[in-house]
Amino acid sequence: MWLKRGVLALLIMLVFGPYLLTKLPELIQHGVYAHRIRLPFFIDLSQPADFSQNHTVNMFLTSEEGISFGVWHTVPESLWKEAQGKDLAWYHKSLGDGRPVFIYLHGNTGTRAAPHRVGVAKILSTLEYHVLVPEYRGFGDSTGEPTEAGLTSDALYLYNWVKARSGKSRVVIWGHSLGTGVATNTAVKLVEKGEVFDGVILEGAFSSARQKITEHPFSWYYWKLPGVGLFLPEPWADNKVVFPTDENLKKMKSPILFLHSEDDHLVPIQIAQQMHEAAANAQNAERVKLVQFDGSLGYLHNGLYRDPQLPDILKKFVGSL
Fold this sequence. Notes:
Shape: globular
Structural class: alpha/beta
Order of helices and strands: HHEEHHEHEHEHEHHEHEH
Number of strands: 8
Strand content: 15-25%
Helix content: 25-40%
Radius of gyration: 21 Å
Number of helices: 11
């Protein structure tokens, strides 16, 4: 009986093995980005008001041929009444009103409608900031498939789009989780062009260099599925996914604010502390700050938006720019 089962298993591997090998890049892509997991289910991203975003407009931008990505633009709360019924042109023009503009790059899995992402947008709006929340290619209602280069390209395109309409307004990029890798990649691309973000916020920042494969927040499939290491390479192998945040921090010229919960279950607080130290050494302690949130508060990886002190922390950071 065991011999028969062994032969059957071998035959299955011989038949399906070559096919699985051709699908490795796609499997790795889904493991890292989890972009097909679109929570909450059955939502209409073209209607931000359904998520209490009543002064928000939905739009699409085309970063390259065949790539259209969705974006929510939420205006400052004081413009709530004026914003009712306004068209895209009004929202675009509002970016030049002198208020700071935030670009929020979310983490993997789900869409811009996730509660913690909506929560961040509401805080920024209450503080009288504009906030644009893009949906990466392949996520939500955006076309294409996610790649590291593609996500970085989309973020850079959105920044340039905002700068063309925001005049002298300060532009701050806020990356959360996976978004911190996209944010630092984009920041380095700007430095190479002789430009910088006015400010950078890195929430729940991860490090592909400092976190072992068994600990990495975007590679659960690699270490939880028995025997998968025999067939799938590590996510970082062959430079399929890199996000070299550590190296990026050494090149960045913008003021940086790290936000991290001490009970983060995906990225240990020690990782944030080490990256903060590296970034501060590259610039100085005045331009690079780390705010740690007590682990007893239970914020984990996604809950910092609930902290009552966060608005003051953000105002202080923006005021220093």
